[in-house]
Every structure is written in structure tokens, then in C-alpha cells.
Design a protein that fits this description.
The structure is a single chain. With 139 residues, the protein is of the alpha+beta class. The protein is built from three helices and five strands, in the order ααβββαββ. It has helices spanning 4-17, 20-23, 79-92, and strands at 31-33, 43-57, 61-74, 103-116, 125-138. Strands 1-2-3-5-4 form a five-stranded mixed beta sheet. The longest helix is centred in the N-terminal third of the chain and has 14 residues, at 4-17. The chain starts with a helix and ends with a strand.
């Protein structure tokens, strides 16, 4: 059994890597875990998870609220490419992904903030999406 943020990260990564609207913009090899600026663009990186344990449920299950950040990076066409990727990701995440070994009881549509690289010589656009889920599992 893996930690809930890693399970959510794997579930979202698998979903995004098999969603044509996302892979039309981002090579599936560039959809992965990792909190740093990527070498290859465009990219979707997942990291910075947080787990808040909520207690137990029936049948000796554990319940937690899980937050995960998804970082969308693009360089070509600046903000337009990044926003197109973000829109495709948000559409893919309208429903909870399947998380192996976990039930997702609540799943909220993500929120996203956009940032441009402050260095005008670089045309990076970076979106930070936050996903929230309530997950349940048995050890």
C-alpha cells in the first residue's frame, strides 16, 4: 500500500497520459512526478502533496483529505499553450480518477493560477493547479 498522495498522483498521471486532449499537447513521457522546472516542454509535473488524516471509517478503513499540486509548463506560444493544456487537464479531471487500492469519496474540480517567468528573455508560462480528494483505504 502506498501513501495517499502518491496514489492520487499515480491515478491522475495515468489518466492524463491516456487522455487524447492532454496528449495532443504534452508527450506522455513529460507527464510525471517531480516538483522542479522541467527540461522538456511542454510538461505536466505532479508534486507537493499534503495528507490530512480525518480518522477511521467502518471496517477498519482510514480516511484522509489529500491535496496535490499539478504544475503545467509551456514555452512555445507562451500563455496560450499552457492555458490550452490546463483546460484539457481540468476537463480530464471533471470526475475522480481510479486510484488502485483506494476509494475516492470526494473529488473537487481543481483550481489553477498562472504565472509568467519574470525574465523577459525566457517565455515560460507556469500554471499551478491544486487538486483535492477525500480518500479511503484499508491497510
Amino acid at each position: 500500500m502506498i501513501e495517499p498522495t502518491l496514489a492520487l498522483q499515480a491515478a491522475i498521471g495515468n489518466l492524463l497520459a491516456t487522455t487524447p486532449a492532454v496528449t495532443g499537447h504534452v508527450d506522455p513521457a513529460n507527464i510525471r512526478g517531480g516538483p522542479m522546472r522541467p527540461d522538456d516542454f511542454p510538461s505536466i509535473l505532479m508534486g507537493n502533496g499534503q495528507t490530512i488524516f480525518l480518522g477511521n471509517a467502518s471496517g477498519s478503513q482510514y480516511v484522509a483529505r489529500v491535496f496535490l499540486t499539478i504544475h503545467i509548463w509551456a514555452v512555445e506560444d507562451g500563455a496560450d499553450t499552457a492555458r490550452a493544456i490546463g483546460f484539457a487537464v481540468m476537463n480530464a479531471l471533471k470526475q475522480a480518477p481510479e486510484a488502485e487500492g483506494f476509494a475516492i469519496d470526494e473529488f473537487g474540480l481543481p483550481s489553477i493560477s498562472w504565472m509568467r517567468d519574470p525574465n523577459p528573455a525566457q517565455s515560460y508560462t507556469h500554471g499551478v493547479m491544486t487538486v483535492e480528494a477525500v480518500m479511503r483505504w484499508t491497510v
